[in-house]
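# nightly structure sweep
# worker-07 picked up a monomer target from the shared queue
# config: single-sequence mode, recycle default, output format = C-alpha cells
# input follows
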Amino acid sequence: MFGSVILEVLIGIAFVYAVLSLTCTVINEYIAAILKLRPRMMEAGLRGMLKNNQLVDDLYSHPLINTLSIAEPMRGLFSVMAVDKPAYIPAQSFSVALLDIVKARCPVQETGEGNVFTSVVEGAKAVDCDFKNMLVAFANQAEGNLAKLQDMLEKWFISTMEHLSAWYRKQMQLVAFLVALGLAAATNADTLEIAGRIYHDAAMRGAIVLSAVEAANVRPDDPVAGRQVARTYAAKVTDPQLPLGWREFPQGFGQWLQKLLGLLLTTFAVSLGAPFWFDMLNKVMNFRWSGVKPRPASPGDGSNK
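# output follows
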C-alpha cells in the first residue's frame, strides 16, 4: 500500500508539472506572438546576411516573399495575431526572389539561362554591400550554371537560419524559465508542499490520478491537437482539485527558505517543457498498470509445496 501511495504521489506531481508546463507554453506563444519575435528574428537574420537594407526591403516586397506575410497567423498553440512580415521563408523562395532582385539591377536584361546568369553577375556588381563579393564568388564557383548558383544560395540561407534558430531557442529558454518562475510564484506551485498535500489527502490524490489517466496519452506537441490540448489542460491551473494557490504565507526565515526551494524545484521542472512531462506521465502510468514483475523462483525455494 505504501509503495502504491508513493507512486500515486509521483503521478500527481508529474501531472501538476505537465499542466504548468503546458500553461507556460501557451504564455510563451503569446509573448512570441505579441512581440513578433519570430518575424523580427527572420528580418534580423536577413539584414545580417545581405548587409543592405534596401536589398532586404526589396526582398520583402518580392511577390514570392510578400505573399507569405498575408494574414499569416503565428504558428503554435494559438493563432493570436497576424504579422506584417513572415516568420518563415522557404529557402527556394529566398534564392529565386534574391536572384530576381539582383538580376533586375543589370542595365541590360536578356533571356536564356546563360544570359540570365550573366545578368545576375552584372546586377551583383551594382549592389553596394559586402554581399556583392559573396554573390560574385558564388557565381564564379557556379561556372555559368544558374541552378547551381541557386542551390548555393539556398544552402547558405539554410545554414544561416539554423544558427539563427539555435540562438532564438536559447533566448526562448530564458523567457521560458522566467515565465515558469512567475507562474510558480503566482500559483504557489511549491513542489514540497504539493507532494505533502497529495500524500496526505487521499481524495485529492485519487482525483489527480484520474485526471492523469486521461492525460497520459496526450501529445501537446501535435500541431493538430495542440490547441485543444492547451485549452483543456492549461485551464486546469485554476482547478480546485490541484494543490495550487496561496492559502497562507510562510512564517519566519526557515519557512520562506523552504518555500523558495519548493518554488525553484517547480520552476526548473516546468522549464523542461510540456512534451517532456506528458511523456514522463505516460511512462509512469504504464509502470503503474504493469506493476513490478515477480522475481523468478529458483529450483530450491520450495515453490512446489
